Amino acid sequence: MPIKWTYEKIAEEAKKYEMRNCFKSGNESAYNAARRLGILDKVCSHMKHLHISWTYEMIGEEAKKYKTRNEFEKGSRGAYRAAKRRNILDEVCYHMTPVRISWTYEMIAEEAKKYQSRRKFYEGSRSAYNAASRRDILDDVCSHMTPVQTHLYILEMIIGEKVIYKVGASGEVEKRINTIKRNASLEKYGEVYLLETDKCLIFEKEILTMGQPYEFERKFKGSGEIRQFDDETLKFILKKYFGVDK
């Protein structure tokens, strides 16, 4: 007969192990019950911290274990945070059941107060941000934040015969692009495509989902928004967002 895992039983079982992977391999039933109940961090608080360098593939495999983002965050916080840092949360959570919220003005305004920039607001509470954008109240609820990022841009970066693309949103495009060039340290660059819009963060995220991440050996700020696009996808992006036929 299957064991009905209570908090007390799970906590007692977890005490037998010094690391999470040992807990999982030693009693997967108890481990999975802790994850489902959202108490994994609590019952494993005595365990040694195991640092994991999460790759894109590892994050994707981990995310498949969960049905909602809330379960993913509670059950595998390291993978969830790595996905947020690399801006691939939408990609690895595409199979999950979306949580629908009917955002009122008051709810949006209260949510917006948690953030000091529109980018942080968008990344931290995309549903509220999009609701604000649809209702044309972004300027109102974001009045306390640092200045809006007004430009969407794509920078062509050339490595040998390969062309990759840095996708970004910024209010100081020239300064941002110069920083990317300095950090990437490449010999050649191509075109820069620009669009001035108050929806630059939304468009940036849409474009990032269309390409494949390109991994630099050395990480730097902004390297997580570098993508490879096939010819048809690139043509579609340039036409739709920048009005360019290529």
Description of the molecule:
48% of the residues lie in helices and 13% in strands. The chain has 246 residues and is of the alpha+beta class. β1 and β2 (162-170) form a beta hairpin. The N and C termini lie far apart (64 Å).
What does this entry show, briefly?
The chain is α+β, with helices and mostly antiparallel strands. It contains 15 helices and five strands.
Q: What is the global morphology? A: globular
Rg is 21 Å
The secondary-structure class comes to alpha+beta
Low confidence ranges: none
Query: How much is the average pLDDT?
Result: 86
What is the secondary structure topology, with strand pairs?
Elements: H1 7-14, H2 20-26, H3 28-37, H4 40-43, H5 56-63, H6 69-75, H7 77-85, H8 89-92, H9 105-112, H10 118-124, H11 126-134, H12 138-141, E1 151-159, E2 162-170, H13 173-184, E3 188-196, H14 200-208, E4 212-213, E5 226-228, H15 231-242
Antiparallel strand pairs: 1-2, 1-3, 2-5, 4-5
Helix pairs in contact: 1-3, 2-3, 5-7, 6-7, 9-11, 10-11
Features:
5 strands, single chain, 3 domains, 246 residues
